[in-house]
Amino acid sequence: MELNKKEIELVKILHNNNGKFISGENISDTLGVSRTAVWKYIKNLRKKGYIIESVPRRGYHLVEVPDKITVTEVLAGLKTNLIGKEVRVFSSIDSTNNKARELAKGGASGGTIVIAEEQTGGKGRLGRKWYSPPYTGLWFSVIVRPHLPSNRAPFLTIITSLVVKKAINKLGIEVLIKWPNDILIRGKKVCGILSEIMATPDVINTAIIGIGINVNQDSFPSKIPLATSLKQVCGHNVNRIELLQDILMEFENYYNRLKDGCYRDLVTEWKNSMDILGKEVDIVAGNEIISGKVVSISRRGELVLIDPDGNKHLFWAGDVTLRQKD
């Protein structure tokens, strides 16, 4: 659904008018075209899925946009300075993280966003596949060039999980963060985060942060029973573009806090967003399974566990499952 230059400008004019009517004369003056040309652009936009109301002597206003993610729609309401500096949208690719890495190696600037309507090889942690059907979810990656100390790498996942939690909370949906990178609703996974770091031993030069959110799926394959979508929870479709814009704007806020060195505050907020503290768990780390009680999250973001023998273990990452009570 490609728009020409004038159609893109017209969409921006309608967006910026915040749902109010704007006259055809004002539009034609702004675009520098005739009223007849304005009407032609309106007709073309309607064919492409835009619902635009027209009333004699009042003009036009934008009622609804098509449920397809386009660069035009993402940028039309995005109020950021860095994140979304460049937006790339693909109808179907193997993985947004793969494409983002390719672009980053080619010199793409920090703040570039890679979005796919469908991923054929979406990636989760530990090489797992991420179910990414077309036109239902948000599958995207953010390229950042933070130049942070390498030991601060976990904070990129920390801020991303806080950002997604905050954006979903605004929909009236309560979520919890499952350490270290999953977002849960009522015990089921609605979002996964996969951060891939390009760093020297001392400095994080580039990071690719992949985010997959189940938005408007009605159901899931039987092989992934512990998944849910925002639609399944709230009972109606969620506007994917508005949610994406909200996430990107929140991401910029949290990314700036990270760059400013607000590590302690970020860890405290992250820890308060979990329900794992005080729980008995099993953690798969490498080839080991370690059991014990989660007693804290360290100021560096590590999970702190005490095993039955009283030994303390620190984990940067791992698969965590709650132990069933006997």
From TrEMBL:
Biotin binds at S95, T96, N97, Q119, K189. GO terms for biological process: protein lipoylation; regulation of DNA-templated transcription. CDD domains: BPL. The lineage of its organism: Bacteria, Bacillati, Bacillota, Clostridia, Halanaerobiales. Transmembrane segments: none annotated. This is Bifunctional ligase/repressor BirA. SUPFAM superfamilies: C-terminal domain of transcriptional repressors (SSF50037), Class II aaRS and biotin synthetases (SSF55681), Winged helix' DNA-binding domain (SSF46785). Residues 24-43 bind DNA. It comes from Halothermothrix orenii (strain H 168 / OCM 544 / DSM 9562). It catalyses: biotin + L-lysyl-[protein] + ATP = N(6)-biotinyl-L-lysyl-[protein] + AMP + diphosphate + H(+). It is an enzyme of class 6 (ligase). One of its GO terms (cellular component) is cytoplasm. Residues 72-259 form the BPL/LPL catalytic domain. Acts both as a biotin--[acetyl-CoA-carboxylase] ligase and a repressor. Keywords: ATP-binding, Biotin, DNA-binding, Ligase, Nucleotide-binding, Repressor, Transcription, Transcription regulation.
